[in-house]
Design goal:
single chain; alpha+beta; 11-stranded mixed sheet; 25 strands; about 25% strand; AtuA-like_ferredoxin_dom; DUF1446 domain-containing protein; AtuA_N
C-alpha cells in the first residue's frame, strides 16, 4: 500500500475544457485522473440523445477530446482513469473508447460499472405508488430516465479487477475519487471516518477549477490567471487526511477560503450530508495552509449510511421558449418591463384565438436593472438593459406563435429595442426532475470487464433513520458595545451558492472569527428569506458550520423549478451568493476607525 495517492480532477461538467486533463496528465504527477461530467440537467440531455441514437447517451467529449489524444501518455505514465462519462449508456462509451484506443495503438483495459439505470422498472414504481420525496407528487406517466446514485465500491471493484479506465453511469460525484482510495487503501464499508474524508476529497475536486479559485468571492486575486487556470489535485493518505494543490506554473490559488467555498457547495446539513456509502459529518472540518498553493484538510467524520439510494428520474413536461433583446436610454428598465408585458399579452391573445390554453408559466426579467436583487424596474436608474421574456406551454405550436411575436416588437414597441440574440427563439422541451428513494437491496451493482461480470456487494446501511445530530454552534466572540454601522456582508465573509433541484444553498464563511457574531445576528433564516423574498417560495433553513466559522443556508423552492424546468436566467442559483454579499450587517463603528478590524471599509447605504 502506497503512503500517498495523488488524484487530479480534469473536468467538472460536460463541456469543461480539455486543457484540464492535458495539464494534469502532462505536469500533474498524478496516479489517477478523474472526470465528473454529470448533473441532473446533463442526464436529461443524454437521455434525449440516446432516444434518438441508441449508440449515444454518454459524454462524447471524454472519448474524442480527452482519451484519444492522451491515451498514449496515460498508458506510458500508468495513470488510471475514473469517470462518470457513461451517462445513460456506459456500454456505448466503453465501445467508443476501445475503438479509439485501437485507432491510436494503445491497449488499455476498460471496465463499466452498471446498476444505476432503473428505467425498465418505471411501471413497477408507478404501481407501487412511489411519490416525489420533496413535493409528494405522484410518479410521472412517462419518464425519460431513471437512475440511482450509486456509491464508490463499484468503482473500487473495477480497479480491483485490473481496469485502467473505469466508466460509470450515474453515481454520486465524489465516488470517482472515493473509489480509487477504497481500492488503494483497502477501506471497508465500516471505515466511516475514512469514507467521509475520501468523499470530502472528491467533493472538493469534482468541480474542477472551482477549487483553485475559478469562481471565488475575492475574484481580483485570480482574475489575471483566468486564461490558464490550474485544475485541482489531492494528495490523499490512508488515515483520510489530504492536501489540495494544483500543478506548478498554472493559474489560480489554493487557499483555505477558496477551498472552503468549494466545501460548502451544494451541501445541506454539514453534520449529516447523505451519500450512498456514508453519512458525512463535515461540521468540524479544518483547513490549514501548509505551503504556497497547498491546503491540508482534516476533521471529516462519518456515520453509517442509510439503507436507501437516492433515485433521480426525469420526465417531459411541455415546452418552454425564451427570448432576449436590448433596450437603451432613460427609463430603460421600466420600458423593458412594459415591452415584456405587452409581448406576453399579445401572444396570449393570439394563442387563445388559435384554440390553445393560456401559458402555463411566464417570466419577465430585466437584466442589468438588479432584478436579481428584487429591485422594481420603475426604481432602476439603468440606461442599458437586457429584457428576457420566457414562457412555458404544453404545446410546441403555441410557443411558435410566441416566437413569431418577438420581432414585431422592434417596430411596434419601445424605441432603441435591438439585439435579438440568435434570431427567432426555438421552443425547447421542459424536463423535470423527480427524486425518490429505493432500498439498496433492490439494486444490483455489477462491474463488466471484457466478457465477465462481477456483482458488487453493497453494504445495506442501517435500518434506522438519519441520526438526530446535535446542531454544532459556531463559536462567537463578544461584540463590543457602542454605536454600530452597516457594512456589506462581503466585507465580513466569503460565500458560494449552488443548487439541488429547486433548492438553493448558500454557504457563508466569516473572514475572521470576530465577524461570526455579527453575521449570526444579521443573517437569520428569516432575514435571508426576506432578502430573497422575490425568489423564495418555501422555507429557509440555517445550519451552523463551526469548523469553517460559517453557516449554510437552504432556500427551498427558490429556483423556479430548477434546472431546465426553470424559466429563470439563473436556474441553478449560481448568482445567489453574490446577491447575499450586499446584505447589510451591523458592526461596531469602532471597527471602521483607524486600527479597527475593518479599517478602510465604508459603511453601506442599503437601497432596500
Amino acid at each position: 500500500m502506497r503512503d500517498t495517492i495523488r488524484i487530479g480532477c480534469g473536468a467538472g461538467f460536460w463541456g469543461d475544457s480539455p486543457e484540464g486533463p492535458r495539464q494534469l496528465v502532462r505536469s500533474g504527477g498524478i496516479d489517477y485522473l478523474v472526470l465528473d461530467y454529470l448533473a441532473e440537467i446533463t442526464m436529461s440531455i443524454l437521455a434525449r440523445m440516446k432516444a434518438k441514437t441508441p449508440t449515444l447517451g454518454y459524454a462524447t467529449d471524454f472519448v474524442s477530446l480527452v482519451m484519444k489524444p492522451l491515451a498514449r501518455e496515460i498508458a506510458e505514465k500508468r495513470i488510471r482513469v475514473v469517470t462518470n462519462a457513461g451517462g445513460v449508456n456506459p456500454e456505448a462509451c466503453r465501445d467508443a473508447l476501445l475503438a479509439a484506443f485501437a485507432e491510436v495503438g494503445v491497449d488499455l483495459k476498460v471496465a463499466v460499472v452498471t446498476g444505476d439505470d432503473l428505467s425498465d422498472r418505471a411501471e413497477q414504481f408507478r404501481a407501487a405508488g412511489v411519490t416525489e420525496m420533496f413535493s409528494g407528487a405522484p410518479f410521472p406517466a412517462k419518464t425519460a430516465s431513471i437512475n440511482a446514485y450509486l456509491g464508490a465500491f463499484g468503482v473500487a471493484a473495477a480497479l480491483d479487477a485490473g481496469a485502467d479506465v473505469v466508466v460509470t453511469g450515474r453515481c454520486v460525484d465524489s465516488a470517482v475519487v472515493l473509489g480509487p482510495l477504497i481500492h488503494e487503501f483497502g477501506w471497508t464499508p465500516e471505515d466511516y471516518d475514512q469514507l467521509s474524508a475520501g468523499s470530502l476529497a472528491g467533493h472538493i475536486l469534482e468541480c474542477g477549477a472551482q477549487a483553485t479559485g475559478g469562481i471565488t468571492t475575492d475574484w481580483r486575486a485570480v482574475a489575471d490567471d483566468w486564461a490558464d487556470m490550474g485544475f485541482p489535485i489531492a494528495d490523499c493518505r490512508a488515515d483520510g487526511s489530504f492536501e489540495v494543490g494544483k500543478p506548478d506554473g498554472t493559474g489560480g490559488r489554493i487557499t483555505p477560503p477558496i477551498v472552503a467555498e468549494q466545501v460548502v457547495y451544494e451541501v445541506g446539513d454539514p453534520a449529516a450530508y447523505l451519500l450512498p456509502d456514508v453519512i458525512c459529518d463535515w461540521s468540524d472540518v479544518r483547513l490549514e495552509a501548509v505551503g504556497p498553493d497547498r491546503v491540508r484538510v482534516t476533521g471529516a467524520r462519518g456515520l453509517p449510511p442509510t439503507p436507501s439510494y437516492k433515485v433521480s428520474a426525469t420526465y417531459a413536461d411541455g415546452w418552454r421558449c425564451t427570448a432576449t433583446m436590448m433596450i437603451v436610454g432613460r427609463d430603460a428598465a421600466l420600458r423593458a418591463e412594459k415591452v415584456g408585458t405587452a409581448i406576453l399579452a399579445r401572444s396570449e391573445r393570439l394563442i387563445a384565438a388559435a384554440g390553445f390554453d393560456r401559458f402555463a408559466e411566464t417570466s419577465i426579467e430585466v437584466l442589468g436593472a438588479e432584478t436579481s436583487y428584487g429591485v422594481a424596474p420603475a426604481a432602476s436608474p439603468a440606461r442599458e438593459v437586457i429584457l428576457k421574456v420566457g414562457v412555458r406551454h404544453a404545446s410546441r405550436d403555441a410557443l411558435q406563435i410566441f416566437a413569431r411575436e418577438i420581432y414585431p416588437a422592434a417596430t411596434a414597441m419601445a424605441q432603441s429595442l435591438t439585439g435579438f440574440a440568435g434570431g427567432r427563439p426555438e421552443p425547447q422541451p421542459v424536463v423535470r426532475l423527480f427524486s425518490f428513494l429505493i432500498d439498496k437491496r433492490d439494486v444490483v451493482v455489477s462491474v463488466k470487464t471484457g466478457d465477465a461480470a462481477i456483482e458488487v456487494a453493497t453494504a445495506p446501511g442501517t435500518e434506522r433513520s438519519v441520526p438526530e445530530t446535535a446542531p454544532g454552534e459556531v463559536a462567537t466572540a463578544p461584540v463590543p458595545d457602542g454605536p454600530t454601522v452597516a457594512v456589506p456582508l462581503v466585507a465580513l465573509a466569503t460565500a458560494r451558492s449552488g443548487d439541488k433541484g429547486d433548492i438553493a444553498n448558500i454557504g457563508v464563511m466569516a473572514r475572521h472569527p470576530d465577524f461570526v457574531a455579527p453575521i449570526a445576528r444579521a443573517l437569520t433564516a428569516e432575514a435571508v428569506r426576506g432578502w430573497f423574498a422575490h425568489h423564495v417560495r418555501g422555507p429557509v433553513e440555517r445550519f451552523d458550520w463551526p469548523g469553517l466559522d460559517g453557516f449554510n443556508f437552504l432556500l427551498h423552492r427558490a429556483l423556479g423549478g430548477g434546472g431546465i424546468a426553470s424559466l429563470r436566467y439563473d436556474p441553478q442559483g449560481k448568482a445567489m451568493a453574490q446577491v447575499l454579499m450586499d446584505m447589510p450587517v451591523p458592526v461596531p463603528a469602532a471597527w471602521l476607525q483607524p486600527g479597527g478590524r475593518l479599517e478602510g471599509v465604508a459603511a453601506m447605504e442599503t437601497r432596500r
